[in-house]
Specification:
The complex is a heterodimer of chains A (309) and B (490).
Chain A (H helix, E strand, L loop, with lengths): L4 E10 L2 E11 L4 E5 L6 H8 L7 E6 L12 E4 L11 H11 L4 H14 L15 H13 L5 E5 L7 H16 L3 E5 L3 H7 L2 E6 L2 E7 H5 L5 E7 L11 E6 L3 E6 L5 H9 L3 E8 L3 H22 L1
Parallel strand pairs in A: 3-7, 3-8, 5-6, 6-7
Antiparallel strand pairs in A: 1-2, 1-4, 8-9, 10-12, 10-13, 11-12
Chain B lengths: L1 H16 L2 H27 L3 E7 L5 H9 L1 H13 L7 H7 L10 H13 L2 H7 L3 H5 E3 L12 H14 L4 E5 L11 E4 L6 H22 L3 H8 L7 E3 L5 E3 L2 H37 L2 H6 L4 H37 L5 H10 L2 H28 L3 H20 L1 H6 L4 H7 L5 H7 L7 H29 L9 H9 L2
Parallel strand pairs in B: 1-2, 1-3
Antiparallel strand pairs in B: 3-4, 5-6
Helix pairs in contact in B: 1-14, 2-14, 3-10, 4-6, 5-6, 12-14, 12-15, 12-16, 12-17, 12-20, 14-15, 14-16, 16-17, 16-20, 16-21, 19-20
Classes of the chains: A alpha/beta (309), B mainly alpha (490).
Chain lengths: 309, 490
């Protein structure tokens, strides 16, 4: 089956700055795909090229089987990172307007806007102006405007940022619903936990270059296992653990990596003497760890390359 | 694809029509005109009565004659009223004194004196209700006795009067010399108000007439001859009409030639305020970040065109309403005013000039499109209104030119400057409207319109390129050099 989205050696420059360098990527249909990377890594530029807001300087891309995304614009849904609404428009009108811009006819768009707003708990807001809404509600309205025309491929740029836990769950449900309906969802995020829980595939860009891409399992495969520890007590003690390679200490939870050949059983015994252990897991590293490690390694490589020059 | 442009335009129109700005825009012109007419009248009414007195050193009846002459206009108005309002009880005693008069009759000298004397005895408020007595309303004569100016010698009295003036009790006082027939060099007018000289000049006119009459009598010149000698030379105003014959110049014709100036003024206001709406609107859309969502559904070109047409529709609605108001006034005014009152009805006749109206609508649309292209491009590269204002400055300076040259062009509608300005596309809409009274030759209409439309097309293309890149930019506005770079892209 053809991919929902394919990029082949795509490069985009702004003046002397290269925002995306030689990026190749396949997004299979019907999956949830996470775009990871630091701020300014090139995620948004990549997304904008997919939406044909920007055009690549070199390389090619194909969206839903078309070389030119313009042709399939009406089958795509896009929620930009900077989310805004017309303040003076009514909630129902604006959702319907986005639908009409995607080629829906007036009555269908109006009916569907009402249905969506009601379904996602904004029924009382249909006739109210957007300026009166809280940030979280505005964001929900935006997402509904993004999916009103039942797009085959939905791209959400930072959909979770600024949402409270209840709305986060709602956003997650919207994404999962779309997957269930056979749509493809791409979203970018800084929340590694969300990516880990939701995504079938992830990719990471760092400083305009692709670092890794694939299923969550394939990304984690081959990485050294680590200790996932939930504890109470003074976490500073963990830094003195014999045979320690790295520790990400969050105060109540820590992710601990040992040097090769060190036995996690010894470590557990040592730890139990120092803090109260509530949970101890020995398994593949978290996406968070992989992300941080990738950034470190890439920066070292770049520094080394810079020093050689 | 065009469908999406229409959707954007439609939304833009609906949103604008819902705003207060739109309704203010619609009402501002009729309100401004109404207010300026009303305010002038009101301000005249609100002017305080100016109290003055006269110190007559001659000791004769010059003061009485001067006052009578000064208020002769009011007396004439009252005299005419006795014929017009036969049954007014307030005028009964006056009619008794002047006798029966027919309408349009000229008062004799005796009748004038009678009216004047009657006038002095009436309550000024009652008089004011009867007739529009300009002089009596504004100027009140107060006798020196009433002011208790009682010093024995002239210098003492002058000092007392000076005190009244500096305390503000008196607006002004006049000093009549001892022998006006010989010389008026010692006549004086004392006031601390240096800006309002109406009273002085009106009094000067009245006294001039009296003194002249006296001198003529003294020299033994028959009054008929004196009048003949004093006659002013006046040219009768004529023009050559379409058939090549000589015709009288009517006030309508004059107003018709000046009317385009008014149209230019409204054209300027309409184009500028509506194109400005587009500018603020674009910046706002950029500011509230809706632009990126829109661009995922429509192309930048569609978005720009949609915005421009949506606001054009808003502008045309406003301008259309103005025109409708004007036509309504032109139709109503003659009926309300009985078709008589010359100036105003001529003004409304000019309003009904279809040629002017058509030109107005055409030049509004063309001028708007041209400036809209420039302003939407400026709006797309700016993030705040403040940044936009900097970029707007050169545009504003250019826009001032047709406004400042408005009267000049109307006076010389087919002069070299007017012709040259017509061929500068940024001025074409204003200058050609301005020249409509001329009127310019047909080939000029054709050539300037072609040039204007061509320029609009090129400017739109360029604006589209700037818009495409600029609208997604954040941070500082680009340098002019960068913008030229974008223009060169395909």
């Amino acid at each position: 089956m053809e991919h929902a989205l394919s990029l082949h050696g795509v490069t985009k420059r702004f003046g002397s700055f290269t925002a995306v360098h030689d990026l190749s990527l396949d997004v299979p249909r019907g999956c949830i795909y996470g775009f990871l990377g630091q701020n300014g890594a090139g995620k948004t530029t990549t997304i904008r090229m997919v939406m044909s807001i920007f055009h690549p300087d070199s390389g090619s891309l194909s969206v839903l089987g078309h070389r030119d995304a313009q042709e399939v614009k009406d089958r795509l849904g896009y929620l930009p990172e900077e989310k805004g609404l017309y303040k003076k428009m009514k909630t129902g009108e604006i959702v319907a307007y986005f639908g009409k811009l995607k080629g829906m006819d007036r009555s269908t768009a109006n009916a569907r806007a009402k249905e969506l707003l009601t379904r996602y708990g904004l029924g009382d807001w249909i006739d109210k102006k957007c300026e009166a809404m809280s940030k979280g509600m505005g964001q929900k309205v935006q997402v509904l405007g993004t999916i009103i025309h039942e797009p085959e491929l939905v791209i959400l740029d930072e959909p979770f940022s600024g949402l409270d836990p209840v709305n986060r769950d709602l956003m997650r449900d919207i994404i999962l619903d779309m997957k269930r309906q056979g749509r493809t969802v791409i979203f970018s995020t800084h929340g590694m936990e969300q990516a880990e829980q939701l995504c079938d595939y992830v990719m990471m860009i760092h400083k305009s270059r692709l670092q890794f891409a694939g299923t969550l399992a394939s990304v984690k495969k081959g990485k050294d296992l680590g200790i996932q520890l939930d504890y109470d007590g003074d976490g500073r003690a963990l830094k003195d653990l014999p045979g320690l390679a790295r520790v990400n200490d969050n105060g109540k939870h820590a992710e601990i990596f040992l040097r090769p050949d060190e036995d996690p059983q010894h470590a557990l015994r040592w730890i139990v003497d120092r803090v109260t252990v509530r949970r101890f897991d020995y398994r593949e590293p978290s996406l968070h760890e992989i992300f941080v490690r990738t950034v470190d390694e890439a920066n070292q490589k770049l520094a080394a390359a810079g020093a050689e020059r | 694809m065009a469908n999406k442009t229409l959707l954007v335009a439609q939304r833009e129109f609906v949103e604008n029509v819902r705003t207060k700005t739109f309704w203010i825009g619609i009402l501002i012109v009729p309100l401004l005109i109404g207010a300026s007419i009303g305010a002038t009248a009101l301000l005249q009414k609100l002017k305080e009565t100016q109290r003055y007195t006269v110190l007559d050193l001659g000791g004769g009846d010059l003061l009485a004659r001067a006052e009578r002459e000064f208020r002769s206009g009011d007396a004439r108005a009252l005299f005419a009223l006795t014929a017009k309002m036969q049954n007014a009880p307030e005028l009964a005693s006056l009619r008794e004194r002047v006798g029966a008069t027919g309408e349009g009759a000229e008062p004799t000298g005796e009748q004038m004196v009678a009216v004047y004397e009657w006038m002095q005895k009436q309550d000024p408020e009652v008089l004011g209700r009867l007739a529009d007595l300009q002089t009596s309303k504004r100027y009140a004569f107060v006798h020196t006795d009433e002011l208790r100016v009682d010093a024995a010698d002239v210098d003492g009295r002058i000092q007392q009067l000076n005190q009244r003036v500096s305390k503000g009790e008196l607006f002004a006082y006049f000093v009549f010399g001892a022998d006006p027939e010989a010389s008026t060099a010692d006549f004086r007018y004392v006031s601390n108000n240096l800006t309002d000289g109406d009273l002085r000049s009106a009094y000067e006119n009245a006294l001039t007439r009296i003194v002249q009459k006296e001198r003529i009598a003294k020299a033994g010149i028959p009054p008929k001859i004196a009048e003949h000698i004093q006659q002013r030379v006046e040219f009768a105003k004529k023009q050559v009409d379409a058939s090549g014959a000589i015709a009288d110049v009517k006030s309508e014709n004059v107003i018709d030639k000046w009317a385009p100036v008014g149209f230019v003024y409204f054209l300027w206001m309409a184009i500028f305020s509506i194109a400005n709406l587009l500018l603020t609107n674009t910046i706002e859309e950029k500011g509230n970040r809706t632009i990126e969502v829109l661009l995922s559904s429509v192309s930048p070109g569609q978005l720009m065109k949609g915005k421009i047409w949506g606001i054009a529709a808003t502008g045309l609605t406003i301008v259309g309403t103005w025109v409708a108001f004007g036509l309504l006034a032109a139709w109503l005014a003659p009926q309300l005013m009985g078709g008589g009152s010359g100036m105003l009805s001529a003004l409304f006749t000019a309003l009904r000039n279809t040629g002017y109206l058509l030109a107005f609508v055409f030049y509004f649309l063309a001028g708007y499109l041209l400036y809209a292209a420039v302003l939407v491009a400026i709006g797309s590269v700016c993030n705040t209104l403040k940044e936009a204002q900097n970029l707007m400055q050169p545009v504003m300076m250019l826009l001032m030119v047709p406004l400042l040259s408005m009267v000049f062009v109307a006076q010389e509608p087919n002069g070299l400057v007017a012709k040259a300005m017509s061929f500068f596309p940024l001025f074409t809409p204003f200058t050609m409207m301005n020249r409509a009274g001329g009127p310019p030759a047909t080939w000029e209409y054709v050539a300037t319109s072609a040039l204007l439309l061509g320029t609009i097309w090129v400017t739109m293309k360029a604006a589209g390129k700037v818009f495409r890149v600029g609208v997604l930019m954040t941070g500082n506005p680009p340098k002019l050099r960068e913008i030229f770079g974008w223009l060169r892209e395909k």
